[in-house]
């Protein structure tokens, strides 16, 4: 994987800072034994289909490497690159024409992405530090995880290093008559702890269950806890019902951030099953991507400069992007996650989220200059890397399921998605995506219950929930219900919601409104590849569903050319 040292390519240090930071690094001497090795690595990079650089930037890279190896590092200037590589004439002025700077930026990004997925095969890596065009040739010692400490204070790295939000779970107080269930309270706290621990963005700690704390002592414990949050509360069994009160406080100050009561009728089922269901409801309220902890962390992250975000804050930013798939958030979130993957090469969650972004890059056309097939391939490789790093984490399997879906491998997609949900049954975003996949395959009996369950359990409904349920009502002729779901889709930069609106409106005879939805589809269509269903279902959609949707879109005024798969 790309190391922390390569993060120099992503910042603009002052000359003095650059000299200090680069520690006197110089181009390789051609007389050294590394010359052949560097040539082999250059050939590997420029000949690889995974190196997403233009032909001109491949020549750019070859030129600067050859010049450096020939001992002519002093000649690697913007003017010489422009005239000898880009074909500019002798009157070229780098102060007036920024072409070299712009292409160097693209080349750096291409190198970073290449090593992000193909770095394991390298014995040496080629990097181009920002602030110049002279390449560096880096040995494994520079990019191994053990080198992280040496780079910890580099100004281009995020100021924070946290990979998870931390929470201390205290024993819940017992109220009412629990004599028949001596370990009821302990079991409740354990179920909460297990559920929270399944969310990789959260690190869970327990306070010893046999300790007794007075109110003042408990407050002091919270303030000194090794974490951001502390969770406490009580359970009460009385009159055939279960009542749970939960309070989340800021560990450092004891400030109350959130509180909620949960009540269930015990006459309706097994007491312990109901206890665990309430514990899972509490977990979802706190820990799902749009839950309490994520919302608090996201609000804090919004006030920070992008480069100061910690790894977990980059992941939280990803989920904020995924709520609406806003195009203007895509590049910033991608850069944040790529930087995190570079500086934290063993952080599985960054690779899993980055995989989903690469999938979005081709399905929504958010990365229009990059090869769709290359993005699909990289999405799979990044997801595989996430699973390799954390085999029991739901996030990597979720990313793998989406990557395989848009690579048209439906069995592999379903297997990965089902495994993701098995690892974290409380992950409503995974439940939503799996429900939508089943629905697009025409397996409504499998998909709709998942969509409805996720919709009921989410604090904030995701657009994919609404799209899936809208399509379900549409194919069954319930057009008013389909339109109501479609209107809840908050994804202004992708076609999903507008497709759902258009097909519902035209079936209701509201053709003027349908035409306005179609106009938005036409405006968005150049921004994404494939047919109008490609960014939703790839080529995997059930034929009957696809025919009904496309027929309604044509009736609404969308041309055959735009609707074609």
In short, what is this structure?
The chain is built from 25 helices and eight strands. With 565 residues, the chain is of the alpha/beta class. The strands form two sheets. Strands 3, 4, 5, 6, 7 and 8 form a six-stranded mixed sheet that branches.
Give structural notes.
The chain has 565 residues and is an alpha/beta fold. The chain is 54% helix and 9% strand. It is built from 25 helices and 8 strands. Helix 18 crosses helix 19. It is globular and about 90 Å long. 46% of the residues are buried. The model is unreliable at 1-32, 144-159 and 209-226 (pLDDT under 50).
Describe this protein with a few key phrases:
single chain, 565 residues, alpha/beta, Rossmann fold, Serine Threonine Protein Phosphatase 5, Tetratricopeptide repeat, two-stranded antiparallel sheet, 25 helices, globular
Question: Helices, strands, pairings?
Answer:
Layout lengths: L14 H8 L11 H13 L8 H15 L8 H7 L14 H20 L6 E3 L8 E3 L1 H4 L21 E5 L3 E4 L7 H14 L4 E5 L8 H9 L5 E10 L2 E10 L5 E10 L5 H17 L4 H11 L8 H14 L2 H17 L4 H16 L8 H18 L4 H13 L3 H14 L4 H13 L3 H14 L5 H13 L3 H9 L8 H12 L3 H14 L9 H4 L5 H13 L4 H4 L2
Parallel strand pairs: 3-5, 3-6, 4-6
Antiparallel strand pairs: 1-2, 6-7, 7-8
